[in-house]
Amino acid sequence: MTSILSAATLLAAACGGSGGPESSDGRIELTIGTFGEFGYEGLYAEYERLHPNITITPHKTGQGGPYHEALFTKLGAGSGLDDVMAVEEGHLSDVLAKSSRFHDLADLGPADVKPDRWLDWKYQAGLDKQGKLVGYGTDIGPLAMCYRKDLFQQAGLPTDPQEVKSLFESWDSYFEAGDRFVRESGGTAWFDSAAQLFNAMQNQLQTGFFDRSDTLVVESNPAIKQNWDKVTAAVERGQSAGLVAFSNEWNSGFKSSAFATKTCPSWMLGVIEEQAGPEHAGQWAVTDAFPGGGGNWGGSYLTVPTQSEHPEEAAALAAWLTAPEQQIKAFKAKGVFPSQVQALESPELLAATNDYFGGVKDGELFATQARKVGHAQYKGPGDGKIQENAVAPALQAVEQGASPDEGWRQFVDASAQIAR
After folding, report:
1. By its UniProt entry, which InterPro entries does this protein fall under (predicted)?
2. What residues does each domain of the chain span?
3. Strands 296-303, 84-88: parallel, antiparallel or unpaired by DSSP?
4. What is the pLDDT of residues 158-217, one digit of tens each?
5. Homologous superfamily in CATH for domain 7-141+298-350
6. Rg for the chain (alpha carbons), in Å?
7. C-alpha to C-alpha distance for 44 and 112, rounded to whole angstroms
8. What is the pTM (predicted TM-score) of this model?
9. CATH class for the region spanning 142-296+360-419
C-alpha cells in the first residue's frame, strides 16, 4: 500500500546515494532504495546479524511514481543512486533500455543463484535483449477475478467460486455475463474501469505495444484493436462504472457497491478489504479463474547500478532478499506474493487463508494462478507510459461519451507521441 510522503521521507530519498567507502573498522554501508511495501524491514536487521561487517541504510519512498522519477533523474546525472535499487515492472522496460548502467547479476551475484530459483517468465522479464540479467525478481501479482457474491445472487448469477468459473473462462464469456448482470441488476456496473480490463488483456498478448526491435505496433498488431473493440463495446452497453483506478471516486466505489467484478492481482485483496471496509466482509469472493488464462499485474526487481561502490556486496544482499526463505517472510509480513518456485511450494504459503474473502486459501489460489502465466511479454521503452498516458485517458474519454473510434485515434496518436 502507498502512503503520503512525509517531508522526512522525501529528504531521505533526495539525500540517498550509493554506499560510502569502507570504514576504518572494515564495516561496509549498503544503501537500498525501495517504494511502497516490500516486507523487508525485519529482514535488514537479520542480514546485518548474519554479516557483522555490513550496515544497511534503507531509503524507502511511499509512492512508486516519485520514486522512479528520481531514479531516472539520478541515472541520467550519473550519481546519487543506492547500491541496490528496486524497479517496478511497469518501469522495467526503461531500465532495460539503459542496461549498461546496471551490473549483470548473472556474473556479479552469488554463483548458487540460478535461473530456476524463479518462475521462468519472471526471470526472463529481467533480461535485456542481449541476455544480461539486470534484476533479481521480487514479488509478482498473479491475476484472479474478484466478485461480489451478494450482487451476483441478486442478479441471478451463481455465487460459489467453483460455479462462477465458467463466467470467467474467456473474455467473451466475461462480457456476456456482464450483459446479463447489467440487465438483471437494473443498471449496476459489471466492472470498475475499462483501462483496468484492457491492460490485463494487453499483457496476455504475445506481442505488446512494441516488437523486439522497439517498433511501435499499436496499429499493426490486430490483437490490440480486437481487445479495444471488445472493451469499448462493453462500455457502450453500460458495463463500466467509469472510475479512474486509485482515484477517490474509485476508492469510494468499493463502499457504495458501484461494480460487481474486479481484476484481482494478489495484492488487490488488501486494497479491496481496506476500501470496501468491514461492512462488506464476506461479500467479496475470489476465484482461481481469469479470462484468457493467466496474467500478471505488478511485481518488482532488485538491481545493482554501476554507480555502486560495493557492487559484489550489493548483489549478495539483493540475492539474499530474493531467496525463497526471505520471500516467505516478506509474504507473512506484508502479503507480497513471491515469484520463487520453492516459495510457491511452501506449506506456509499454501496454508494461508483470507478471512475477509470467506476464508479462501489465497496463498494456494494465487500460486496456481502464477503458474498459468505463459511467457514474459517484451516491453519496449515507454510501454508503461503508453498504459498510463495513452490507453487510460483514451478509454476514459470513451467512458465519458466519445465514440470507440474517436478513443482509438486518441490512443494511437498519444502512443506515437510517446514512442518518438
Report:
1. Bact_solute-bd_prot1, SBP
2. 7-141+298-350, 142-296+360-419
3. antiparallel
4. 999 999 999 999 999 999 999 999 999 999 999 999 999 999 999 999 899 999 999 999
5. Periplasmic binding protein-like II (3.40.190.10)
6. 22
7. 21
8. 0.89
9. alpha beta
